Q: What sequence folds into this?
């Protein structure tokens, strides 16, 4: 062939984008991977950074480094702000356009307040490393403020924590925060008893971790309560402001509210001009291409895929599988062969709750407690990219486990300025 | 005794403040340790965080955790903004005052631009973890910008790095940055060759690392040049702006200029109303107390101490020794005994330059190169507080050494916004 290699633009270096890119290590295609961050993030452990168990670099690796040996890939650190499907171009933040032959849109999701965007400044969510460091700062500073406060009502407000949403992230945050209050911080203050901190997990739906069967959900709730979390289900939060939140008839004074109640697809999906589902995700074809645009694929959290009457979940294994499927579909197209429909292979569902507490659902196998926790730990450490990360994460966890200490309890920014660093309201 | 315990206020949880506090583990005194950060920082390794070799939490430990078992200590996260020596009170950022019987002022130093404060936005310095994360971001983003730039002159400006000041921090930053450009990043870009980055170390004085003897200084310079650093001595930088810097007659286009040329004492020293030296440090009595105020001691970088006609250097061992001396002096006073003069015990002087490059001066013993580097590494890892930190740092370094990779190459904040996070100009 003397023609130019086929140019694939991949938007997003998460699990879907990165796995597709790696599977396309072939000199007949040229790939431009565009991400607005310089790193691939191991999102399943992001809550550990937010709760000071891990450092940010422990769960992230530079995209350039991951891909340095794959010579058909160019990594660009830039934000894609618009798509022009008719011209086959993506538009970057600085106005430049990049032309593609094939596009993989894997820009992921962000947390969403479902029409209550004014809650965002008071109830930050957790999607990026910046979010995690900001959340860590907010949680740790709350104990510091409580220690300085002499008014008992205000002190209680600083020691009142609420996590809104009992999906995996909400459960992890609540369980770990309870552990920090009860164990990590217990001897460190002179005026407050951190064990009296109230950690509340609030879910509008009827139960925690609704993607699990009822019996495991019940076990998860029992484990949360044993760790000291107060679980409230069936009640939506109806308002959040700087002083606290409203739950049914009651306004609860709480200085730390965390949003884990929902995600919405990247707004980029709208630029495709095709039907989206209620969460803004693209209703893709069976082969994950976009209706009317066989040259555009969508993967990861941005793709809405139904399988056997149920949605494919927004988890890392599904995103990786989509990425690999899309790579195969692109190769099939280039070879003039038909594409096959995507099928999600569900290897099981795990959720961690806190120290020695987790639930595992693998086909007919269901278990919970310490064994589930070890299983979860092993699986997650194994899947972290790169040997160094795996090993250091293991060491950090082993030390945290033995000592009850959390290594990353660093508050960035000055103590007197609550809005640093990057203290905006994203 | 039925009287109230003697109340000691310690301002600053650096080496002087923390070592004094630990040496005063005695129920007859009550200590309030005030710091505006929640952590003790192992400052000698701060440049490793700036150059992405270590995570911020690797070199910092929460003050509350370090001191949790010392029951006569209360840690307060607050900024001391003023002193009232006549009333024996310190004033906090929120206006509250804390009364002391004895005060230890150990608020340290900050980087100083010597009348050129308008250079600060273009040439950030390195004193805190926030500084280090910001510097890391600035350096890594420069390579990203160069990769995106199509104009060759602008591209060169992004690949031009200048470190102003060839003291220990400047030398460490220059040597490590050269290593990153030549080894860590070498295969990761498609449009630039990071090895062509120009790393210049600029010193107004006649030689690098002037606290070392001439022969070791010469060896340090040779090692820097071998690592790829261009060393310029005897020439001060006469201007710095967003486009570059002026050196003698020439203006050099350089997007990344780092300030390592000088420190000034905390402005709190002025509130004492006693004579200061040219760098703003307190000219203390031989026992490290303040003239006219036997109840106030000054330690660490804030104290100006002459010994045998030379100033005691602003290094961690000196600060620790001062802290311990002040603890002894306070105990002597409480027992009605005279205090003794402080004597700095110089155990030697080490400086690291880069991979396998360092110089060591221990009394009559002088050596350089790989052996000096291993010696430096062992000493610094040994002195890091706490087992966990030591071990993880060792692992990180071992991995970095084997792989040439740097684990903490994470750019926080959005790619399109150069001013986040905490992107102010401190």
A:
């Amino acid at each position: 062939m003397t023609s130019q290699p086929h140019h694939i633009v991949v938007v997003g270096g998460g699990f879907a984008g990165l796995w597709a890119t790696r599977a396309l290590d072939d000199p007949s295609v040229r790939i431009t991977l565009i991400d607005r961050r310089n790193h691939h993030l191991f999102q399943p452990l992001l809550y550990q950074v937010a709760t000071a168990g891990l450092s940010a670099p422990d769960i992230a690796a530079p995209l350039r480094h991951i891909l340095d040996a794959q010579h058909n890939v160019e990594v660009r650190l830039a934000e894609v702000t618009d798509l022009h499907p008719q011209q086959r171009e993506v538009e970057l933040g600085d106005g430049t356009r990049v032309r593609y032959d094939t596009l993989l849109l894997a820009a992921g999701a962000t947390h969403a307040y479902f029409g209550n965007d004014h809650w965002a400044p008071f109830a930050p969510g957790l999607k990026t490393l910046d979010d995690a460091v900001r959340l860590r700062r907010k949680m740790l500073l709350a104990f510091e403020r409580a220690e300085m406060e002499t008014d008992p009502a205000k002190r209680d407000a600083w020691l009142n924590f609420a996590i809104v949403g009992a999906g995996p992230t909400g459960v992890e945050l609540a369980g770990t925060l309870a552990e920090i209050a009860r164990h990590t911080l217990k001897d460190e203050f002179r005026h407050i008893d951190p064990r009296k901190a109230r950690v509340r997990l609030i879910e509008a739906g009827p139960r925690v971790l609704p993607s699990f069967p009822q019996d495991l959900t019940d076990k998860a709730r029992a484990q949360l309560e044993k760790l000291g979390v107060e679980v409230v289900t069936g009640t939506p939060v109806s308002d959040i402001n700087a002083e606290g939140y409203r739950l049914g008839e009651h306004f609860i004074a709480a200085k730390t509210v965390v949003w884990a109640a929902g995600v919405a697809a990247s707004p980029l999906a709208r630029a495709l001009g095709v039907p989206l589902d209620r969460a803004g995700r693209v209703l893709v074809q069976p082969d994950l291409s976009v209706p009317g645009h066989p040259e555009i694929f969508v993967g990861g959290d941005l793709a809405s895929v139904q399988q056997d009457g149920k949605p494919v979940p927004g988890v890392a294994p599904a995103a990786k599988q989509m990425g690999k499927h899309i790579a195969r579909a692109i190769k099939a197209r280039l070879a003039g062969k038909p594409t096959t429909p995507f099928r999600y292979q569900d290897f099981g569902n795990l959720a961690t709750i806190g120290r020695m507490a987790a639930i595992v659902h693998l086909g007919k196998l269901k278990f919970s407690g310490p064994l589930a926790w070890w299983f979860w730990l092993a699986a997650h450490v194994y899947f972290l990219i790169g040997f160094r990360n795996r090993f250091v994460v293991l060491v950090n966890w082993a030390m945290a486990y033995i000592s009850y200490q959390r290594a990353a309890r660093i508050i960035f920014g000055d103590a007197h300025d609550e809005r640093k660093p990057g203290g905006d309201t994203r």
Q: What stands out?
A: The domain at 6-111+263-334 of chain A is CATH 3.50.50.60 (FAD/NAD(P)-binding domain). Confidence is low (pLDDT under 50) at residues 415-426 of chain A.
